[in-house]
Here is the input.
Amino acid sequence: MYNQKKLPDKILIFVLFAAVPIFAFVAIVIAPFLLGLYMSFTDIGTVINFEFIGFSNWERAFASSRFWNSFGVTVRFVAAVVILGNVFGFLLALLVTSGIKFQNLFRAGFFTPNLIGGIILGYIWQFLFLRMLPYFGNVVGIPFLQSSWLADPVRAFWALVVVSVWQSSGYMMIIYIAGLASINKSLLEAASLDGAGYFRQLLSIKMPLMIPAFTICLFLTLRNSFMIYDLNLALTNGGPFMSTEMVTLAIFNEAFANRNFGVAQVQALILFVVIATVTLTQVGFFKKREVEE
Amino acid sequence: MNKKIAKILTLTATIALFFLYIYPFILVVINSFKDRASVIRDPMSLPDSLDFSNFFAAYTTMDFTTAVINSIMVTTISIVLIIFFASMLAYFLQRWDWKINKTIFTVLVLSMIIPFQVVMLPFVVIYGSVFGVLDSLPTLIFAYLGFGVAQSTFLYHGFIKSIPRELEEAAAIDGAGRIRTFFQVVFPILKPITSTIAILNVLWIWNDFLLPSIVITSASNRTIPLSTFAFFGRFTADFGVAMAGLLLAIIPIIAFYLVLQKHIIKGISDGAIK
Here is the structure.
């Protein structure tokens, strides 16, 4: 049934099952990807021409201080969100699986921010940081809340982290819950009989057996926080004074505000290489450490 | 006794966190009923009355009817196409062990870590400057098929691997053609993973902003994220109307969540673990 020998038969099978999706994939992902590589060596800007100009886009991209500043902000952001998002996600998973009442309601509530896109979430929190928190800070008398977080470079950065952690932790919680549920109960009972307390069981049994869940959660938070765009645009739009402009926003502005398609394309390729290297290294590193029961 | 205290503490901590997590939404709801002055005066108080005028203002300015229809159309059609074509592609890649199939599958998997920015500008060049087909919903839908096919094929591929071939062979002996065998025998078995794939894609396509912001330019083609973006900038002085607009924008997906909550949570965890 699956071993047609004649070429016409093979072609028929391919056309029936694979031609359309492969065409769409090639047209939308592969062709632009290859053209992008080529574009990075051409003089493409306000007008479409493909004059070959060697490495000049690459030199300009590497020399752009705006790009490297945004890269630095992004790396700090990724570090903060990966750590805090997973700590909170894991904590929420432990809380809602501890046998308390209303756990389905809690689960649903913690997950809710993930239903909504970054643009809308960014606007909701913009209101929170501009209006509600300063008001609250004045009423209660907390100095660091009295002025808007979005007007100060350091606090605007942390505003982005807070919103991202708030959102991603609910998603990670779901994956950690699945990880906790997959652990064989008899192992925990045996450990309990041997006198292992809650934290001992958590550190020596649950966490090592949950490495697959950590692999996925770290991968997702790494990839998503490197690629953050919507939230950045809606909450701070890179401000104040470009202090919170992340790589994706910098690339967009280089392309559409400065009209430097070639340079922006190189910067996007640099981002791709960084994301690919970081995530593949992380997944490889964790896969080796997965243990069997 | 200690256990009881621990339990009460856990519950209290969870309730406190729960309140913090949903507070931003509460804030949107209460302020969407207030006029400009009372939002400024006290953004945390409850509204004096249930005045819906902010909603009417937001609804018309956002052209909400058009945005909802566009969003529903783009999301549904894209997902039907993704499910239809990705399931067939995965079946083909799994069942026929041609040499090239391994390569196709590897390319699909690797493509999942390409950031959108890498293909964004060439995409604009090809579909804008060369073909001139931007600002159209069909182009947007085709783009979702192209971008979505990799992940969905990957998920189907893993699932199909676990289905024994005997059923298909029996159907073939009974004289069913290949396409009929797939749709009558294999596709029904894929139901659990199909619902996972549908849910993951709804959350992605419904909320996606960057791709439509590049494809769509005219107001009549806007999806909800685009019309929210166009609307919000004009209302930062009148936060009551702005909050009403945001609330309108999140109502459809929240309704979807309330109806299908169990499936959505299950879909997320199944999709991540596979």
Observations:
- Chain A has a mean pLDDT of 90.
- Residues 40 and 260 of chain A are 11 Å apart (CA to CA).
- DSSP finds 14 helices and no strands in chain A.
- Chain A touches chain B through 91 residues (CB under 8 Å).
